[in-house]
Protein 1
Amino acid sequence: MKIIENPWRGKALPDESLNEIPMPSTDAEAVETLLRQCPAAGETPLVEVHGFSGAVWVKDERNRMALGSFKALGAAYVIACEASETGAEELSTALTGRTYVTASAGNHGMSVAAGARVFGADAVIYLADTVPESFADRLREKGARVMREGAEYEASVAAAMQAAEDNGWALLSDTSWPGYVMRPHRLMEGYLAMAAEAARQMPSVPTHIFLQAGVGGLAGACAAYFRKIWGDAPQVLVVEPSEAPALQAAIEAGRFVTAQGGVSAMGRLDCKEASLIALKGLARDADAFVTITEQEAAEALPSLAEQGLATTESGGAGMAARRLMDLPEGTVSLCILSEMA
């Protein structure tokens, strides 16, 4: 495990490419108002995990809207907003004729596929070669067309961008870059429902919050909201694979960089480039950036499974980092269990 303190905390990263990038939204009320209209929506539980010094609470996102992860709150929320904005009386056909295209390292694609299906749109999902075929089959079951492109996530992102341009499709990425911020900003806003629920469910203000990150959407949205309601009270720690330290590398460099590394078993977190919205927000809001090894991520899983919280290396990355830290009695930690096994 490698930990670096954030020298930009409460300030701005000195990177001019971020000047026109918005900060993450903190408007959880708008998200929850829309979600109340969805019959599949409902709060996920907060569960106490035992075997630690100090209290540890986990927000269990494995059954969010029956899609298997917190990502159900992201792309599907964007699509729901765009369907509502059409003014159509029948929302189930509001987006007929529109095609959403994206790249996915995992659960983001499920959210795009599910949202498109509900509102009458089509979905095309680009996957890198490393994504298991079983996941591609799950996407097809949701009505999506699956395309394979490249050996890593970034190659599938480039392919999705090109397909959007060539075909006039709506690109719905979960990351952001200069000139592409509106949809990913709204997508991150969707994650605020999870943060608002956790804040209501926590028995006390946490002293430490562990947020795993790939491109950084979950971490950026949650950190911004928790700072809004709890101020500087919690220590916010962002957790990434040591093979994909996109945010940690940028914080160390003082600017956006492409991280270097091999393929990580933390597949949903194996992203070498951070979302600029997330990077800008976390440079302000996070206290520290943590990377964990493949072995450290795997070692956290058996104890979680024994407590009825089976997940993947990606889903349990925040818990893995908490497990490695010898925090004293009296501390209260909040972690996110982000996906099912």
Protein 2
Amino acid sequence: MILTVLLAAATFSHDVAPILYRQCAACHRTGGVAPFPLVTYQDAGRRANLIATVTKKRFMPPWLPAAPHFQGERKLSDAEIATLAAWAAAGAPEGNAAETPRPPHFADGWQLGKPDAEAEMRAPFDVPAEGLDLYQCFDIPDPSARARYLRAVDIQPGNPKVVHHALLFQDTTGTARKRDTGQGYPCFGTPGFLPAHGISGWTPGGVPFQTPPGMPGLLHGNADLVLQVHYHPTGKPEQDRTRIALYFTDEVPKRHAQDIPLGSNAIDIPPGERTYKVTDHFTIPVDVDVIGINPHAHYICSEMLGYAVLPDGKRVTLIHIPHWDFNWQQLYFYATPVRLPADTRVELEFTYDNSAGNPRNPHQPPQRVRYGPGTTDEMAGLHITVVPVHESDAEELSQTLWGKMMRAIGPRR
């Protein structure tokens, strides 16, 4: 009864504004990527029922993992969702306007200050008014001809209205340079070259990527930066020219991160199948700290699970996404690194729903879906970023990972 009374008394100034400023305003502000601002009472009050509906369904804020805890989480607690619902049900009262906290300030320029180097797409890209979303890769010559260590990267969309998200890679093979004749090249799913050295990314409301202490990233000399951008048409022709800020350091890495790639190409999903599963695993030979994780699949993947089985049998969740949405994929960094002892087995388990009941299924009626990089194909990938606890173990881990990669090359599993 007391909780009900408190929720019924919720006001914008005292209860709702702090929630919106903390979790929504980074996108829902003038000049932000969202279609409307939610900063003033006038902004939010007339959309109170919409806010209550989309937050109750957890459609907004767009945050996929249910567990564990990651940096920069954009999700609301059950109590916050209840507060928004009660406020809307009460008619969205403003309360005492003098109690409204100061709205957050968002920098117009680079959030980390003047960068050491800037780069941008070679030319503006024309986004058509209508049609399917576009996934376009742009080759950007490295502004530094010599190898440098990176301490931070910021990405600034030229047109936030059409840029859904962006991922930044470096290409040491020259492949992207050959494929990009001036307007980029289509690259749904992957950037189209191996190894694809991932650097950072940008998602709405995100913050610049900064490397962990003592672990600057290597930007190879004469390698090209490759920017993969997801565009969504707005109903009128648009242009974008996304920019990149690079921050260097002379600090030599004391520890080195490595990528544990889990995945499967054993994907052949009959139409109507609702619980098709694929798995993969890898046993880590040395003690490591897990600092980040990056899951990837396409449209009909419904659930993602990555976990670790410790030598004593205890199971630790590394990521659980109960409702995958391709449109909101990103790289996640743990709020606290996860320590895994030697002989821990990390596992991937992805579930796919190829039924008519899956609203994200691109085929209606459903059709057979196989492994592949295309829009209507499917993939299964989970990249786990780890750092050996003892730098002397880095070579052993590297050699074991090489063995896994070589075993994966060949006939499909």
